[in-house]
Sequence to fold (209 residues):
Amino acid sequence: MNDVIGRTTDAHQTLAYSHSKMGRKFLELGLVCLGCGAVVLYINTGAFSAYDWIMLVFSFALGAAMTLYGLVRWLRPATPLLLMSPAGLAIHIDFVKTIRIPWSEVRGVETVDITGEIRGTPVFLPGVTVVLVSRAFYDRHIHVRSWILRGPGWDTNFIPKGEMVQVALHHEALPATAQELRTAVETRWRAFGGAQPASVPRASSGSMG
Fold:
C-alpha cells in the first residue's frame, strides 16, 4: 500500500494502468453469455424456431468473443489502458488510437458524476476524475469521425463543457481507486502543467496491475 501511495504522489514516477480489471469484467460477462446459452440449450426439449437458433448462436458467439478478449486482456501484457508520466497522459483505445495529452494542454482537474446512455441503457458513473482540455485540442487530437469507431460509450468518456471538453479517466476500468487516480493526475498536472513537456513515452517505469 505504501509503495502504491509513493508512486502515486511522486510526480516524476511513470504509472502504467493495465487492462487487467477490464479484462476480468469482459471475462465474467462472456462466461455469463455462454452459461445462458448452455442453459437454454439444455432445458429446451422442443423444436427450436429460427428466432431461437439466431439468439442461441448470437449468445454463444458473443460469449466466446468476450471470454477470449477478456482472457487476453487479463493474462497477457498489452499497451497500458492509461499511461501517466511527467510528459502527460496517454489513453489507449483498442482498435482505434492512443490519445496523448501533454500536461500543458490540461486546463483543470475535476471530480464529476457522469450520466448518459450506452446502447439505450441509462448509466450513472459517480466520482469520476476528468481532465479539461480545450475544444480546439479535442477536435485536433482526440475526436474520431467514425461513429462506429467511437462506439456506444464515447459520450461518457468525452463530455463537452462550454469551450472545454472533459476527458474522463474511469477508475472503474482501472486498477486504482478514485482517490488514487485523482491524486496521481493532479500531482503531475501541478508539477508539469506550466512547462511544455516532451512527447508521451510508450513505456513505463512503474506498473499498476
Notes: The chain has six helices and nine strands.
